Amino acid sequence: MQLDRVEWHLENWATWARSYHPRLGMPSRALGLATTGLSDFDDLCEAADSYAAQATDAAIDNLTPAQSAAVNRKWLDAVYRFPRDNFIDSYADAIKRLGPLLDRQGLV
């Protein structure tokens, strides 16, 4: 997988990871309409992006702890504390390793 596609998947993953809001309690509205199950194009694109983000999340989980922390530091502003590893080197290694992992997930 090309570097620009890996970066796109990481950007999509970061947007997905930041937008998580757990639903607690009862819904604020009741469903009153039945649908035929058909979706418009925007719904299909959102579902595909969500699937790609979940697959990217699984690929990030398969990285070493230092590489995973470097990706989280770069895209989610997390703390990176690995005194024996350099952040820049760990992130570069993570990008190299993510390409084949994303290919195995079926992402393009």
Short description:
The chain is mostly helical and 108 residues long. The protein has a domain at 40-108.
The proportion of strand residues reads under 5%
| Helix share, percent | 55-70%
Mean pLDDT across the residues is: 86
N-to-C SSE series? HHHH
Distance between the termini: 7 Å
* Main β-sheet description: none
Entry keywords:
62% helix, 108 residues, 4 helices, 0% strand, mainly alpha, single chain
Explain what the structure shows.
With 108 residues, the chain is mainly alpha-helical. The chain has a domain at 40-108. Helices cover 62% and strands 0% of the residues. The protein contains four helices and no strands. The chain has helices at 3-18, 41-61, 65-76, 87-104. Helix 1 (3-18) packs across helix 2 (41-61), helix 2 (41-61) packs across helix 4 (87-104) and helix 3 (65-76) packs across helix 4. The chain is globular and about 50 Å long. 17% of the residues are buried.
How do the strands and helices of this protein lay out in sequence?
Layout: H1 3-18, H2 41-61, H3 65-76, H4 87-104
